[in-house]
């Protein structure tokens, strides 16, 4: 029973909310509160203070968090050792993916991995690259798949998949009849951008800067939080944009969007696998890393 309470405690700390922890654990909020109350009665001290509608760990809470994380790591080590004995890979694997990868690439990869290892419980969190990196850094996620190459302290980054960023226009746009334009022409038309923190936006700005054109010169009329939203806006003749080739293949084949190259240079980039160097990796995590680095990953992606 104490193990259940520790699991609830760790989830409350992770989610920074009793209600969010309850949702993540498929419990009622009173059930979560009861588990925390049991811990506080067991140790004879408060674990959380409530400050301005937020919950904050007390000194005792911080101490419990330290040992609870160690207990969790020991349990994962035990599971790995047991799996080594039985040669049966199972367990939970929490994966994060930046928006482009999460929407257009990860589902195919996770599906293929699940077929190989049906006893592994997979979960996928999709957010922008900045948020996924932060979640991997605080060990909320086991592995991250991101578009950005900006990697923080204590994180390991491994090249994963090659990408090419393309200028996209509506099919009746003046540039739809050409194969390439100069980056210095981009300020001629309204531009639709990804949001701040997006790996696509970071890479786009870096490539434009390298070509000698500042992203500040773009005529940005709106910022949208997903490639799907941007494609819809471009199809509606609201403007032009720059997106990953993986996101626009289907629309280009259907004639809904036109892809244009740049005369100065190709906007190539590399997607990365990231993980925390110091976080214990289960056998399921190790096997997923090997799977991601294997040949033929690109062949799994459909469009």
Number of strands: 12
Q: CATH H level of the largest domain: which superfamily?
A: Periplasmic binding protein-like II
Report the principal-axis shape: elongated
Strand content: 15-25%
Distance between the termini: 47 Å
Name the CATH architecture of the largest domain. Answer: 3-Layer(aba) Sandwich
CATH class assignment of the largest domain: Alpha Beta
- Spans of at least 5 consecutive residues whose pLDDT stays below 50 are none
Number of helices: 11
CATH fold naming of the largest domain:
D-Maltodextrin-Binding Protein, domain 2
In percent, how helical is the residue content? 40-55%
Number of domains: 3
Structural class: alpha/beta
Largest sheet: 8 strands, mixed
Secondary-structure element pattern, one letter each: HHHEEHEHHEHEEEEHEHEHEEH
Mean pLDDT: 88
Radius of gyration equals: 23 Å
Description:
It is a single chain. By secondary structure, the chain is α/β, with parallel strands linked by helices. It folds into 3 domains: 2-84, Winged helix-like DNA-binding domain superfamily/Winged helix DNA-binding domain (Arc Repressor Mutant, subunit A), CATH 1.10.10; 89-161 and 270-300, D-Maltodextrin-Binding Protein, domain 2; 163-268, D-Maltodextrin-Binding Protein, domain 2. It is 44% helix and 25% strand. It has 11 helices and 12 strands. The chain has helices spanning 2-15, 18-25, 29-43, 59-86, 99-104, 106-116, 129-137, 199-211, 227-235, 245-253, 283-292; strands spanning 48-51, 54-57, 91-98, 120-127, 143-146, 155-169, 180-181, 190-194, 219-224, 241-244, 258-262, 267-276. Strands 3, 4, 5, 6, 7, 10, 11 and 12 form an 8-stranded mixed beta sheet that branches. It has a two-stranded antiparallel ribbon with strand order 1-2. Helix 1 packs across helix 4. The model has no long low-confidence stretch (mean pLDDT 88).
């Amino acid at each position: 029973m104490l193990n259940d309470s520790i699991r609830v405690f760790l989830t409350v700390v992770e989610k920074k909310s009793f209600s969010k922890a309850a949702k993540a654990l498929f419990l009622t909020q009173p059930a979560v509160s009861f588990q925390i109350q049991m811990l506080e009665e067991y140790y004879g001290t408060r674990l959380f203070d409530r400050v301005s509608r937020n919950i904050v760990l007390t000194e005792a809470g911080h101490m419990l968090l330290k040992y609870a994380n160690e207990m969790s790591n020991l349990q994962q080590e035990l599971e790995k050792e047991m799996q080594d004995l039985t040669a049966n890979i199972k367990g939970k694997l929490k994966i994060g993916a930046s928006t482009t990868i999460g929407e257009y690439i990860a589902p195919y990869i996770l599906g293929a991995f699940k077929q190989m290892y049906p006893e592994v419980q997979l979960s996928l969190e999709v957010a922008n690259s900045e948020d996924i990196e932060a979640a991997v850094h605080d060990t909320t996620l086991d592995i991250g798949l991101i578009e950005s190459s900006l990697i923080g302290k204590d994180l390991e980054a491994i090249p994963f998949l090659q990408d090419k960023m393309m200028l996209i226009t509506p099919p009746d746009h003046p540039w739809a009849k050409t194969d390439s334009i100069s980056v210095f022409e981009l300020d001629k038309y309204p531009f639709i951008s990804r949001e701040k923190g997006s790996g696509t936006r970071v890479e786009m700005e870096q490539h434009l800067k390298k070509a000698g054109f500042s992203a500040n010169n773009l005529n940005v009329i709106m910022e949208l939080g997903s490639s799907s939203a941007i494609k819809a806006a471009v199809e509606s003749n609201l403007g032009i944009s720059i997106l990953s080739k993986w996101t626009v293949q289907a629309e280009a084949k259907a004639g809904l969007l036109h892809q244009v190259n740049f005369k100065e240079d190709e906007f190539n980039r590399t997607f990365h696998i990231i993980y925390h160097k110091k976080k214990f990796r289960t056998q399921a995590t190790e096997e997923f890393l090997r799977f991601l680095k294997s040949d033929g990953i690109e062949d799994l992606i459909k469009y």
